[in-house]
Design brief:
This protein is mainly alpha-helical and 380 residues long. It has two domains: 158 residues, no CATH class; 154 residues. Helix 10 packs antiparallel against helix 13 and helix 11 packs antiparallel against helix 12. 22% of the residues are buried. The C terminus is likely disordered.
Amino acid sequence: MITRFRNFFASAEATTRAAVSPVRPVLTALAVGLLLLAAVWIIHPFLPPILWGATISVTLWPLVQRLQTICFGSRSAAVFFTVLAAMIIFFLPAVLVIVIFARHVDAVSHFIGILPTIQLPAAPAWVGRIPYVGGNIIPFWDHLRENSLPELLKQVIPSPEKILHVLLASAGSFGSLLLEFALTLIVMVLLLGRAEGIIMLLDRIGGQLGGRKGRALLKQAEITTRGVALGVTLTAILESLFGWVGLMAVGMPMGSVVAAVMFISCVLQFGGAWVMILSTVWLYFTAPLMHAIIMLLFALVVIAGDNFLQPLIIRRYVRISVIVIMVGAFGGLSTLGFAGVFIGPTLLYLTETMIRDWAGLPADDEKAGQADASADASES
């Protein structure tokens, strides 16, 4: 009798366990998800330097490996020189831009204050001699000169007091920006010092979530982040330095400020060509003609750089469209801060890759490889 009762309760317990077992993985996943959300909530104040440090660490990881070989296997020396390189490539330009604006705050405020009162000069005589359109350009030019342009500038440009307030507020947050830079460097040192363990952990997580495709997607994220970060940053540095040389050569007023604007425009994916074109127009009406011609030559080189240099650097690592880079940079900047300029395009590209893989469509790299293979076959 006792044995029957024992068997009855054992079977009931097994039935209950079998009924509960499908629910247990769901509850486990829910608990893990809540723990991860709580951890992100706790580290939320430090999230920008963590993201920024992780982005730069991924970008400069090959440099650490090369420097470690040169430094006789010393990881500490390799990390030290890599942090110096990061300060020169990523942090020094941003600090210089802030310092330049802080030093010229009075000049910038005065220039913006008098800008609505400046009128266009009379149209050059050669404009009226342009075939077919010259006769229409002159009346439109005169209309802008007398009525539309000054009023439009008065409506668009804020008052000097408001601009000065914004600049002073930005200068007041300079200390917090330096603190964020310092935290970013600390994150870099921690990540690069234990990079192999972190890479192994992420590889296992990617394998557990998606198997071989999960690991491939993780590797693609690394390559895309490196390509976008180097492409955007190096292009902005080279173009703004080249533009600064041209501005100094022709004696452009506030040339350093214009070069700083050019750097910010390049980082935000607007390019630096429009800054150089406006500088050329300004010099044409306010300086000798030769200065405007020299600036125009520099502007043409910058236009070529906008369309050639950044795609060349990025396509060494990944084939990503300009639209994805621009949308990702704008969205990432508004949501994640400056690090989002690089993380945003990476996330969009990975999302596009996953959707293509799910739909069974070839990725851009595969299509490019197939096109190259077909071209080689046709030539042979």
